Amino acid sequence: MSRSLMKGFVSIFSAKVATSVLSIATLPLIVRVLGPSGYGDFAFLLSVFSLLMIFISSGVTGGVQKFVAEDRDDADWEASVIWFYFKLAAVLAAVGSLALVAVTGSGFIDQLFGPDYVIYFYLLAVFVIAAQFRAFTNRTLLGLSLEQFSEPIAVLNKVLWIGIGLALGVYFSGGVAGFLLGNIIGDVVAAVLGLVIINRYVPLRTVVGTVTTKLSERQLLTFNVLNIALVLLVMSLYHIDVIMIRMFLGNDETGYYKAALALAEYMWFVPIVLQSLLLHSTSSLWSSGEHERVSRISARITRYTALLTIVMAIGIAILADRFVPYYFGPDFLPVVAPLIFLLPGALGFAIARPIYAISQGHGNLKPLIIATGGAALLNLVLNFLLIPRYGIIGAAVATSIGYGSMFVLHVLSARYIGYDPLDDFRALRIGATVLVSAPIIYLMDMLISSDVLALVVVPILGGAVYFVAAIGTGALSVDELLAILDSFPSPIRKWSKTIETWIDG
User: Fold this and answer.
1) How many angstroms separate the CA atoms of 165 and 163, rounded?
2) Residue 297: what pLDDT?
3) SS (H, E, C) 267-297
4) Which residues span the membrane (predicted)?
5) Which CA distances in Å does 68 have to 65, 89, 225, 290, 417?
6) Cα separation of 439 and 261, whole Å?
7) Rounded to whole angstroms, how far apart are CA atoms 186 and 312?
8) What is the pLDDT of residues 48-93, one digit of tens each?
9) Which of 154, 187, 285, 342 could covalently link to 134 via disulfide, CB atoms 3.0 to 4.6 Å apart?
10) Which of 268, 23, 324 has its CA nearest to residue 155?
């Protein structure tokens, strides 16, 4: 990656590490405060909310991030794009919120889910507005390449919703409603701060009412409609299994399965960083005609993503039986089995994420919709067939296959668009790395009797063994590793310089 891409990557990566650490540290507290049943309700509500927000938010957020980043020969381009999407965001948020209020007020929610859910859905109506403008400001900042501001705000948002939710849950018996209220407050603060930062770079007084003659609202709306369809298909992969489990099996099983998903999805934090960065970064490259550069970037990033997420999958698989009882508590031992089945698919989806973002930046969304639609349909059918018969294990198998198909289908989609993300994948060398390192990591775990010691030692030594094996097999070169480390701030950059001097000496 170029230094400009690496600068953006480091900003987003640092924030993602902070939010991931926060999630890892607080998820056991959230689970314990809510219990399996309450956590199942919370997971179900967030899944329903996320699916609703596809229609309200995805066209706005994806569009503003892509188009505000494009290199257009027009002084008013950025202001015009921001104004267009601000109006669209406000209208869609109002429609979504009022629709939730109307459905809840009609008594339908009470009849379907019970009286507790009435207050939950009224809170979701407020959450829609707060989440819409938080997402709008975040994606606008990303499109303006202001990751150094968007990401700290995202961390603050996470701190607020978790802190407020825990406080209400522990001290005021707020339960699920308390965590929903925490989300609302965190999003409101993030939206206000985002608007303040945007105003410093694109003064809002110059935005309101601005429409450049080169702005094609039809082009933006076409992208929005296609992006909504695309995101709907992607989000169905995340949430259809949770919703089906809640409907078929009940709260407790939903809580167990959601906990397994949460652990499997920790593998995605670097791919999600790359996905956030590459949409607006490659949009600029595509619009400038730098197709060869896009191809080189995609090939290298795909290999790096595979190398990193494979070692994480190995670690989670080996340490799951030790980690889950400590992390969630002994009541959550049923989490281990579905987690193991989820890992292969989560790995495939992780590698597919950067490919998806690069293709999305191209702007031709039809191949992406076909690829994602195939994966979503497979996921839906398999979950419908397997959950009633095999419970949460069936859901894990179905979802893993659906996730894994994203990798295959999006590679085919990328080649259709005009680039090959596997051009420098080095599959045989990556396979050799796994064959060499995985047995050693497993042996380490077997030799250490103490759970706590194993959870500390195995990830560190196992990771070292894996990356030494990767260099030895040629899956990763020393120069590539040093170039990555050199892009980070000190002391990591200083370490890379020291290693480079030692090698040259």
Assistant:
1) 5
2) 84
3) HHHHHHHHHHHHHHHHHHHHHCCCHHHHHHH
4) 12-31, 43-64, 84-105, 117-135, 155-173, 179-199, 220-240, 260-280, 301-320, 332-356, 368-386, 392-414, 426-444, 464-485
5) 6, 15, 18, 18, 22
6) 25
7) 30
8) 888 888 888 877 877 787 777 766 666 677 777 888 888 889 999 9
9) 187
10) 23
> Which token pair is 215?
């702005």
**Residue with the two structure tokens 């994203």:** 406
Measured between alpha carbons, how far is 191 from 354 in angstroms, rounded to an integer?
26
CA distance 278 to 297: 10
Task: Read off the DSSP letter of residue 502.
Answer: H
Tokens linked to 47: 């899944």
pTM: 0.71
Check residues 493 and 388 and name the one with the higher pLDDT.
Answer: 388
DSSP state of 146: -
Residue 57 gets which letter from DSSP? I
Chain position carrying tokens 């698989």: 317
C-alpha to C-alpha distance for 92 and 84, rounded to whole angstroms: 13
CB 402 within 8 A of CB 256: no
Q: Which residue has the tokens 């209400």?
A: 168
Distance, CA of 153 to CA of 164 (rounded, Å): 16
Per the CB < 8 A criterion, the answer to whether 137 and 89 are in contact is no
Sign of the dihedral defined by the CA atoms of residues 253, 17, 347, 58, in that order: positive
